[in-house]
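ugh ok fine here u go
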Amino acid sequence: MSFKLRLHVMVAGCMALAVVQASAQTSSTLPPGAMATVNGVVLPAKRLDQLVQINGSQGRQDTAQLRAALKAELIARQLLLQEAQRRGIANSADAEAALAQARESVLIDFLIQDEISKKPVTDAEVKAEYERQLAGLADAQQYQLRQAVFATEAQAKAAIASVRTGTSLAKLAKENSTDASRDKEGLLDWLLPSQIVPAVSNVIVNLDKGAMTAAPIRVGDVWHVLRVEDKRKFVPPSLEQAQQGIRVELLQKRRIDLLNDLARKAKIDQ
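structure:
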């Protein structure tokens, strides 16, 4: 993930805001186009506007609070940058290698932006992709599953035997499961089969409501015991609800298409 995508309001941003607010002085004589100066170094307001726009593309509202947090983060980064320069850290071999890698990432980001600006995702494309996905889900069902996950097959088999003699799978999940879902007694959100790993979905679609897997299912290095808590017909989101996610998918496809095109034209020896 690029620097641009990482730089948004998080805990670090809140910390930066508190530090900067504690030490900042209000000035009415900032240079034109500046949002702040740090030890005489001008921080352009344009940079803040760019970050607000990036955060907006990720669904965050342009608010005074967001701008204040982003501004504080930029000031904090400039303070840290100046100290790094004072200590000569930029001259170290590790820093030079990291800077070279960061430069590559920035250039790639700009390349992707340039490609997307030349081939923007249109509303018509979003609507067509929505309808394509919708057609494939006409008779789809969603499943609400409860699971307990174990490190060994023997533990999973013992859990199945225990459930068959009356122990609650929810109790076993809460007390013994290695998965984070134990905090909800193993209960998972509603899922489509396509959202479940094939090893599990191939079994689940053949189970009735209330039925449990007859044997543990291995996924990676762990073993799953699952029960179908409920089933329901999938109610798709509206175009308005789905369009942002679809737009992200299509933007990712633009990137993949560009990469595939470059790879076809390139001479790559390995």
